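pls design
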């Protein structure tokens, strides 16, 4: 939103003296079927420049509000002002009102005291809504101490006090308007005879009914020294109330009063002074002229606020980042957002572009799907993938009405409120933690049974959910978890197992290797091959399908080779070597064996085995 800075008028003195003020800036904007009215009154009994008899203001004054029955009050602001540094508490119809803010301006003359003037404001919307159309009386605006202890005010006849209430209302019979309320406190005088204010943030669609209003203090009807008010170099006037050469003359345009002493509450029709398509206007205020004796003189005028009411049928796109979803180790984000068209006077068209930036780099684009009516919204979701050049912590920025190059395609009421952003940190997977490896005896074909749960708990104690995976890709994709980790049979030797421990918002990763080795076989001392189903063969445990390349030789007591076996040929007491007795069982007795395991870690095993029936 562009804030306008305006400067306005102050006193007439002979010396070149600095003055200080709060710039008049945009305070509130209303877009819709809105208009405003103002009431107020002065606390001066008459114009304070006429003679020296008046110094102290009245204790109270009143004004009547009379709004149409079709009008609905949406905002109301009370302003009060006077000489001095400020009275920040006043009473309105028995209600004690404290100032939300106080503006002051100072003015000094050589060898004289600095004179200060103030203005306070307060939001009284709820009070005006509850009271409605009635007589409003303001009291307890007390500047007596200031006027008593600073005689310069009365001596210079700048002793004033007064008040006003601005009421912004909505009415269905009105056209769609943009109402801008600007406020601050600024002055012009003989040392600063001209003040130019450029009002930006305007959108003139139709100039019919356009108007501008002012609240100013310390204007004097009888000090007519070329006070002018112009917009776009066109002098404004509202005769007979406000003449072109005496703009600040103690008048109230709302009541057609010329007895609004030392204050001006005026409004001007400007439909002939502003053009369709204008986005700004130049306001100029002047004071200063020569009197009948040839002496240059100027009035002191203090401007408090400015109001513009212009027909403006435009959308106003804003965006809110509602939520986002990120996964551990994933550079993709699912972004939820809502596009709004509030504070607008026209629908926001479909296909309004939306751009997403990460640290200023364009990372995603989409657009609205439908026309968004006034005061409505549309929600959406977009998934973006971040390039590796973006840091793990970055600023995500959503910009509505942005074609990806920083340019918009929709003319809006406010071109500077289209952004929402949030600092985001990706969920980076911590480094894999290596746990002790496990070795088990080969149970056949380089495989063994492992209790993965028990192995993990031997190293890590946790109450968190744990899952086991055969590959890191499966772990990261959260697929193919090992279904029975208490009885896991490895498929490779060695085999790496990956463990995911859920540790919200992310998870920890561990790994260990499973290795299988050939353990020493156990050779029995005898067997009985009698086909009774028990101990019928030379069952060397831990040999078959483990030492798959082994060779077994059996010799009788005379040293004759009677049997040769391997991984596929077990000895059932039958002879398969020699010249005779092939296929016959050996007699009861003791036989010598030589078992060559063909394993570099083992020497051949030799011994005796007893065969009985």
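designed seq:
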């Amino acid at each position: 939103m562009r804030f306008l800075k305006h400067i306005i008028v102050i006193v007439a003195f002979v010396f070149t003296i600095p003055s200080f003020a709060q710039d008049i800036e945009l305070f509130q904007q209303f877009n819709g079927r809105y208009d405003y009215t103002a009431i107020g009154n002065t606390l001066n009994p008459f114009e304070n420049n006429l003679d020296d008899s008046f110094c102290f203001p009245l204790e109270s004054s009143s004004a009547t509000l009379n709004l149409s029955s079709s009008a609905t009050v949406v905002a109301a602001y009370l302003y009060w002002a006077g000489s001095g540094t400020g009275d920040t508490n006043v009473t309105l119809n028995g209600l004690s009102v404290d100032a939300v803010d106080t503006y002051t301006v100072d003015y000094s003359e050589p060898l004289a005291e600095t004179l200060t003037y103030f203005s306070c404001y307060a939001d009284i919307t709820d009070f005006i809504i509850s009271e409605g159309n009635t007589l409003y009386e303001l009291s307890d605006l007390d500047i007596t101490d200031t006027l008593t202890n600073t005689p310069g005010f009365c001596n210079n006849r700048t002793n004033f006090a007064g008040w006003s209430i601005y009421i912004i209302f909505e009415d269905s019979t009105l056209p769609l308007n943009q109402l801008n309320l600007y406020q601050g406190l600024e002055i012009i005088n003989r040392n600063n005879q001209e003040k130019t204010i450029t009002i930006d943030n305007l959108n003139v669609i139709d100039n019919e009914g356009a108007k501008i209003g002012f609240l100013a203090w310390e204007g004097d009807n009888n000090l007519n020294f070329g006070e002018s008010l112009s917009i776009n170099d066109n002098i404004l006037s509202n005769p007979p109330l406000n003449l072109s050469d005496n703009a600040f003359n103690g008048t109230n345009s709302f009541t057609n009063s010329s007895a609004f002493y030392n204050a001006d509450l005026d409004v001007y029709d400007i439909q002939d002074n502003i053009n369709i398509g204008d986005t700004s206007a130049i306001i100029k205020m002047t004071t200063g002229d020569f009197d009948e004796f040839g002496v240059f003189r100027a009035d002191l005028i203090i401007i408090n606020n400015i109001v513009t009411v212009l027909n403006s049928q435009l959308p106003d796109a804003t965006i809110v980042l509602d939520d986002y979803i990120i996964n551990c180790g994933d550079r993709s984000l699912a972004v939820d957002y809502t596009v709004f068209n509030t504070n607008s006077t026209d629908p926001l068209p479909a296909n309004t572009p939306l751009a997403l930036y990460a640290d200023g780099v364009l990372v995603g684009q989409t657009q609205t799907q439908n026309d968004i009516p006034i005061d409505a919204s549309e929600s959406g979701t977009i998934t973006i993938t971040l390039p590796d050049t973006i840091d793990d912590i970055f600023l995500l920025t959503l910009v509505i009405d942005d074609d990806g190059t920083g340019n918009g395609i929709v003319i809006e009421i406010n071109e500077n409120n289209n952004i929402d952003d949030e600092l985001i940190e990706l969920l980076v997977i911590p480094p894999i933690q290596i746990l002790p490896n496990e070795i088990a005896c080969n149970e056949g074909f380089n495989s063994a049974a492992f209790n993965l749960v028990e192995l993990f708990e031997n190293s890590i104690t946790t109450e968190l959910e744990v899952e086991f995976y055969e590959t890191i890709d499966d772990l990261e994709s959260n697929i193919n978890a090992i279904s029975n980790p208490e009885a896991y049979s490895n498929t490779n030797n060695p085999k790496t197992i990956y463990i995911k421990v859920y540790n919200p918002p992310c998870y920890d990763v561990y790994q260990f290797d499973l290795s299988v080795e050939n353990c020493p076989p156990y050779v029995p001392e005898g067997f009985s091959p009698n086909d009774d189903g028990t101990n019928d063969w030379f069952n060397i445990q831990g040999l078959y399908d483990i030492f798959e390349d082994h060779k077994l030789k059996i010799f009788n007591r005379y040293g004759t080779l009677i049997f040769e076996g391997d991984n596929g040929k077990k000895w059932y007491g039958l002879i398969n070597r020699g010249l005779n007795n092939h296929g016959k069982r050996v007699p009861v007795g003791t036989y010598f064996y030589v078992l060559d395991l063909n394993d570099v870690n083992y020497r051949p095993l030799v011994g005796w085995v007893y065969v009985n029936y």
